[in-house]
């Protein structure tokens, strides 16, 4: 497995905690989830490094599940494309036209969903709460989410709380 998985930002699985309504969550469960996340990251990393294993493991599933078949078809195409080696990466990067790259609307759509949920909840004293853990790796995602929420729903109150280990 990749020794950096789960320890270096951008390598491994990063959870995105979310709850529409406030929910108590014992610290012992949090610690257990953190330990399981490390193990799950390693599993995902090892499976991702073995395309033949992944394709073989899901070969029966793709026969009965269209979505899985579609994903495996994309995976097979990407595995074939990734066999190409190009040492002259500068020439490819310099020709990049940013206008042709599809826009990622995830942050604004997520903020829109939170804003609409707040409206549907129909309680003016309701707030959007974000629990931010120490050494948060998704802080920029949360920053953009809050900014989009402020722009589209300026009347929605929101709070950021650092994760408290004694919940």
Automatic annotation (TrEMBL):
One of its GO terms (molecular function) is ATP binding. Signal peptide: none annotated. It comes from the Eukaryota. Transmembrane segments: none annotated. Residues 126-155 form the Glutathione synthase substrate-binding domain. InterPro entries: Glutathione_synthase, Glutathione_synthase_N_euk, GSH-S_sub-bd_sf, GSH_synth_subst-bd. Pfam families: GSH_synth_ATP, GSH_synthase. GO terms for cellular component: cytosol. This is Glutathione synthase substrate-binding domain-containing protein. It comes from Aegilops tauschii subsp. strangulata.
């Amino acid at each position: 497995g990749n020794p950096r998985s789960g320890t270096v930002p951008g390598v491994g699985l990063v959870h995105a905690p979310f709850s529409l309504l406030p929910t108590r969550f014992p610290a012992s469960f949090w610690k257990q989830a953190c330990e399981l996340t490390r193990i799950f990251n390693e599993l995902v990393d090892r499976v991702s490094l073995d395309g033949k294993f992944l394709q073989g493991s899901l070969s029966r599933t793709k026969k009965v599940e269209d979505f899985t078949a579609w994903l495996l078809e994309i995976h097979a195409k990407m595995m074939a494309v990734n066999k190409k080696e190009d040492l002259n990466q500068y020439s490819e990067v310099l020709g990049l036209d940013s206008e042709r790259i599809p826009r990622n609307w995830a942050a604004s759509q997520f903020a829109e969903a939170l804003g609409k949920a707040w409206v549907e909840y129909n309680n003016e004293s309701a707030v959007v709460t974000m629990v931010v853990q120490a050494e948060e790796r998704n802080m920029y995602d949360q920053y953009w989410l809050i900014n989009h929420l402020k722009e589209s729903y300026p009347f929605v109150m929101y709070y950021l709380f650092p994760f408290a280990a004694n919940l």
